[in-house]
Design brief:
Layout: H1 4-20, E1 24-28, H2 34-40, E2 49-54, H3 58-65, H4 69-75, H5 80-92, E3 98-104, E4 119-126, E5 132-137, H6 142-160
Helix pairs in contact: 1-6
């Protein structure tokens, strides 16, 4: 079944990136590659999508994206500092011009008083620019949190880089 909301958003992202000659790469934790799946479901995405990293564990964030263990120890995996580092690492390890990253607590367990279930952090970065970050608190079950995170990440990419 085609999700019209995702399909429309992906098409808009693709048009925006293609018009600028930019390629996108993703680094995902709690969404498990859902952003990459959404954009690669769009015909022609090979012209504007480079690659996706699924870095669910802290070890993967360090090994594949170069996130500092000190950053993870000090701020945690679900932090704007970590998603900024994930986005920077994605750009360094890809041919992309623009990167987005996501790390969060999708639930139903794993939350804490300071980072309850539904807390998701995001990062967006362009080459030679300081990463932009945001934190959201989404309601719903695991799938709802993850879906909202995908929609927010792509919607904000358009808003921030248009």
């Amino acid at each position: 079944m085609i999700d019209i909301e995702f399909a429309t958003l992906s098409r808009l992202v693709g048009e925006h990136l293609a018009a600028r000659g930019w390629r996108l790469a993703t680094a995902e934790s709690c969404t498990g590659g859902w952003v990459a799946e959404v954009v690669t479901a769009t015909a022609g995405s090979s012209g504007w999508f480079d690659c996706g990293f699924i870095t669910y564990s802290n070890d993967a964030k360090c090994a594949l994206l170069g996130v500092s263990p000190m950053t993870l120890a000090r701020y945690g995996a679900v932090s704007e500092q970590t998603t900024a580092a994930m986005a920077r690492g994605t750009l360094e390890r890809s041919e992309a011009d623009l990167a987005l990253s996501i790390s969060g607590v999708a639930g139903p367990t794993g939350g804490s008083p300071s980072k309850p279930v539904g807390t998701v952090c995001f990062g967006w970065a362009r080459n030679a620019e300081t990463p932009q970050t945001a934190t959201c608190h989404f309601d719903g079950d695991r799938e709802a949190v993850r879906r909202q995170a995908v929609l927010f990440a792509l919607t904000e990419l358009l808003r921030r880089y248009t």
